[in-house]
Amino acid sequence: MAVKPIIHDELSLKFKSIPATKQDLAAANDLKDTLLANNGKAAGLAANMIGVQKRIITLFVGPLPIVMLNPIIVSKSDKYLAYEGCLSLEGERPTERYKKITVKYQNENFETRQQEFSDFVAEVIQHEVDHCNGILI
């Protein structure tokens, strides 16, 4: 298990991440291990939060963490105002989110998937994809 420290430097978190490749699977596993170690404090993490500038996110869907490589939100609907926290930042901040999203991503076998998510899971995915794009709440 390779639990990594969480990055708090907002400047480094504002860089856009580049696409993940098969050589980044170790970083994806580190990210998942770090999320598991922060269970109860974080619902999801993006790779730049552990110092890896790759488009990799992990989040809890139920009790289990899933990894998404190169996630792209392809559709979204039902905008609302959310108040979110982040392990990398202090406090909660308001942000616009969407209740329903469709995400295209690759799993850990680099198989392309497209899946719909809603409610809290959709909110977490949007937060982590924003991290990949260098956007902070």
UniProtKB/TrEMBL annotation:
InterPro entries: Peptide_deformylase, Peptide_deformylase_sf
CDD domains for the chain: Pep_deformylase
SUPFAM superfamilies: Peptide deformylase (SSF56420)
Keywords attached to this entry: Hydrolase
EC category: hydrolase
Enzyme Commission number, as recorded: 3.5.1.88
Pfam family, any one: Pep_deformylase
MF (Gene Ontology): peptide deformylase activity
Gene3D superfamilies per record: Peptide deformylase
Record family assignment: Belongs to the polypeptide deformylase family.
PANTHER family referenced in this protein's UniProt entry, alphabetically: PEPTIDE DEFORMYLASE
The protein's name in its UniProt record: Peptide deformylase
UniProt organism field: Lactobacillus paragasseri
